[in-house]
Amino acid sequence: MMKLFRKLLFAFISIFLLTYSVKAADESNLKESDYLKKIDLIYLELKDSLGSTEKTGDLNTDFLNQVLQYQRALIALSKNELQYGERKELKEPVDQFVDELKLNLKKINKVQKKVSENPVYDETKEATYLSSYEEIYQQILTNLKVEGEQPTVLIGNSIDMDFLTRLSKQCEVWTIFMNSILQQTEDDGVKELANDLIQSSDRLKGEIQALIKQIEQ
Hints:
It contains 6 helices and no strands. It has helices at 2-51, 59-84, 91-117, 123-144, 159-184, 188-216.
């Protein structure tokens, strides 16, 4: 009788653990699926906003409109991690990323206001800027999500690693973006902003690399 009881107990525990494991796996897969669907949405919204940004005749205004949309997308990317990320220890640094990106938005808006008061229309210079920007635009989209990639898959073995990798790639393009405008603008305010944004990108990239090493240990 005791042997039978032990066998039944063992069978019950095994079924319970198997059911729990399957349920946990399903929940994990659902979370990953929802996270990746949001990546797709961020990608499409960014593609639409950057692709349809009005061309004003002033390269500085064009740049500010574009970088404003870009920063908003990076905030959305970070908030997606806050919603679906698995490591609690990443919440504080990612919250700080969001704060940094929101500070960048304020800086952009401030410079945008000044530029709008005294725009410099030069369609030739604007065309040159937009020509160089087109390649950057494609890099931004490709590093966020390879176009045509269906379905989107995780980079690395977790949501957290995926987010850190995607944001790190964006920091690289971000710096290229800022250096491009520095080579073409004559506006001191835009130059100062671009240099501030480069420093912001460098800070974020350094913090991201430290977090990636922490996860890999």
